[in-house]
UniProtKB/TrEMBL annotation:
It is found in: Membrane. PANTHER family: FI04477P-RELATED, LIPID PHOSPHATE PHOSPHATASE. The chain crosses the membrane at residues 44-65, 86-114, 213-232, 253-270, 276-295. Keywords: Membrane, Transmembrane, Transmembrane helix. Residues 141-295 form the Phosphatidic acid phosphatase type 2/haloperoxidase domain. One of its GO terms (biological process) is phospholipid metabolic process. This is Phosphatidate phosphatase. InterPro entries: PAP-like (IPR043216), PAP2/HPO (IPR000326), PAP2/HPO_sf (IPR036938). One of its GO terms (cellular component) is plasma membrane. It comes from the Eukaryota. One of its GO terms (molecular function) is phosphatidate phosphatase activity. It comes from Drosophila lebanonensis (Fruit fly). SUPFAM superfamilies: Acid phosphatase/Vanadium-dependent haloperoxidase. SMART domains: acidPPc.
């Protein structure tokens, strides 16, 4: 033993130990490669499942009315001819597609910009791209898109089931009822008003005339922009290097602008007689609730 300590191992023992070390290191290297391969495969499977789920949810939203009417036929909503809440004139919408574009595209653009700035700030002399850099962006986008489709599905379900008449119902529908195709003008001098459920609208009356509750525009606007405001708040708690996130006044200004756009776009739906005020309130609450629920799920992953 003293000889081995002073002069080292004999050549044949050195060869045996080197061989064992090589086997151990090769085994560890193989385990690491297998773990990395499994991790990469699992990430790909998770990405594929997320895409399939979002595509299935989008298909449900697109085909909702066709199949929901068969499951829950519902009853047509009637009216009284003296209902002043349905007597408003039809006004062309001033913010229609813009609400959809802002509520969908603005959060996605902000997600990309913030994650790019975070990645750029972490780079030194070499620019390296890893999956860990993409994960926060991917996580935010998948939860945001899922919530966007979820609130659309809830909106369509409420519209198809409740069938509330819009404030400009009389202006667009011009309903006739009874065997003689009477109109509301025939009941003007009556003291007892009948509740009409069996009526016929004028040709080419849009189906949206009986889908007032709840406001899809309000739900969409509040979902997208409340989600964005909460996302900015969440990122400011995590990231201390980006000035526009750590500056509380600048961040608060961005959050205020988000809420202002959601409020104005929803307010116009009432002013332009496309929704009752309660439709807009319900839509804003649903959109905000879905945004809060999804941002909490995104935070925990």
């Amino acid at each position: 033993m003293a000889f081995k300590f002073l002069f080292g191992l004999p050549p044949h023992e050195k060869h045996t130990n080197n061989h064992l070390s090589t086997k151990v290191f090769s085994s560890l290297s193989m385990d690491v490669k297998l773990n990395l391969k499994f991790k990469g495969n699992w990430q790909f499977i998770r990405l594929l499942l997320d895409i399939l789920l979002l595509a299935a949810l989008l298909g449900c939203v697109r085909k909702f009315f066709k199949y929901w009417k068969k499951i829950v036929p519902g009853k047509p909503r009637g009216f009284f001819c003296n209902d002043e809440s349905l007597m408003y004139p039809y006004v062309e919408v001033s913010m229609d597609a813009s609400v959809f574009i802002v509520a969908l595209s603005l959060p996605l653009i902000v997600f990309v910009l913030i994650e790019f700035c975070k990645w750029w700030g972490e780079q030194g002399s070499e620019c390296k791209i890893r999956w860990s850099h993409f994960w926060p962006l991917y996580n935010a986008v998948r939860y945001f898109l899922f919530g966007f489709e979820a609130q659309s599905l809830l909106t369509k379900m409420a519209k198809a089931t409740l069938g509330r008449l819009r404030p400009h119902f009389f202006a667009l529908c011009q309903p006739t009822f009874g065997e003689r195709n009477a109109t509301c003008e025939n009941e003007r001098n009556q003291t007892i008003w009948a509740y009409h459920t069996d009526y016929t609208c004028a040709p080419r009356t849009p189906i949206e005339v009986s889908s007032s509750f709840f406001s899809g525009h309000a739900a969409r606007a509040f979902y997208g922009l409340v989600f964005l405001a909460l996302y900015l708040q969440l990122q400011s708690a995590k990231e201390r290097k980006l000035m526009f996130l750590t500056n509380t006044l600048l961040r608060s200004l961005g959050q205020l602008l988000c809420l202002m756009f959601a409020l104005v776009s929803s307010y116009l739906r009432v002013v332009e007689h496309h929704h009752h005020w309660s439709d807009v309130v319900a839509g804003s609450l649903v959109g905000s609730a879905v945004a809060y629920f999804l941002i909490r799920n995104a935070k925990s992953t």
